[in-house]
Amino acid sequence: MRLPRLSPDRPDIDQATVKKMIDRAMKAGCNYFDTAYMYHDGLSERCLGELLQAYPRDSYYLTDKMPVWFAKNPGDIEKIFREQLARCKTDYFDFYMLHALDTANWKLAQTYEACEFLARMKKEGKIRKLGFSFHDTPEVLQQIVDAQEWDFAQIQLNYLDWELYRSREQYEILTKAGIPVIVMEPLRGGSLATLSPDATEILKTADPGSSNAAWALRYVASLPNVLCVLSGMTLPEHMEDNLKTFSPLKPLTDSERKTLDLALAAYRKRLAVPCTACRYCMPCPVGVEIPRIFGLYNQYKITGNKWLFLNNYNAIPEDSGASACVNCGRCVKHCPQKIDIPAQLKKIAAEIA
């Protein structure tokens, strides 16, 4: 999802860098690769399909997802699945999930009989483990958990969202049901890797040799029902830091948890918009650069540097800025964080007017 790009404003993947990162990961024992139908406008699946050919199929785990909102009828579910196998140049997926389930997508999955089809694919050996990724309330999660047997579930989980996004309740529902958890957004779109200066200082004082990202990854990996922790490693240095964190993993101590609580309290005072830059809101029908605007605005609120914010914001074309929002609401329907995006854009536009 966050592979290195040839250009920051295009989906084209820097495959030479990805190849080096895959080779480094495999050598270090990091062999779980997560992709999806729409990541990098469909290029992510093709990239992994090509580069993983260098390794025996049983030496790594390949994960993909079914985006039910792309389907117009039950037949499209099979069409998408077959296309994914072809893109990834594989005969099967080790882990496969219904993508981004919420109330609307769960209804679509039922309407298009996606669960029934994927169960058949599992029986045929084209799926080894069947689960779902989730973006909604614990109440909706309980309904999905109760609907059928699942091999695993993927949820947004990090120390900020433990309470803010009700991730604790989601984790507990899955744990009680005996469903292993795969963690997405452990760094909340990278925001927990940067933090605010005061929060960073708290963590650095406690452990000068550890990165902010390492604290966040260790937090989720310390939970007993976590099967795997995803990390969108855009740069080789991200990978090196993550490999260091898990070689070997050192679970957080009680003292370290208290330190992290202090850092979190400091950080929450600065956070403006709970955006993870997942880009599910894009493309905007009128061209507003939503994740970019929120990213710049959050950085401004964290650092207090308004000059830098305005300098970077003014580089965005006027017809792609916050004031260009027409309040159509399309982005809100797709936002996993349930952010009132038009309202936030209106607020930002008013602040810089």
Automatic annotation (TrEMBL):
Keywords, sorted A to Z: Iron, Iron-sulfur, Metal-binding
MF GO annotations: iron-sulfur cluster binding; metal ion binding
4Fe-4S ferredoxin-type domain residues: 314-344
Family matches, as InterPro entries: 4Fe4S_Fe-S-bd, 4Fe4S_Fe_S_CS, AKR2_Oxidoreductase, NAD(P)_OxRdtase_dom_sf, NADP_OxRdtase_dom
Keyword Mitochondrion: no
A Pfam family: Aldo_ket_red
Iron found in the keyword field: yes
Protein's recorded name: Aldo/keto reductase
Native organism: Victivallis lenta
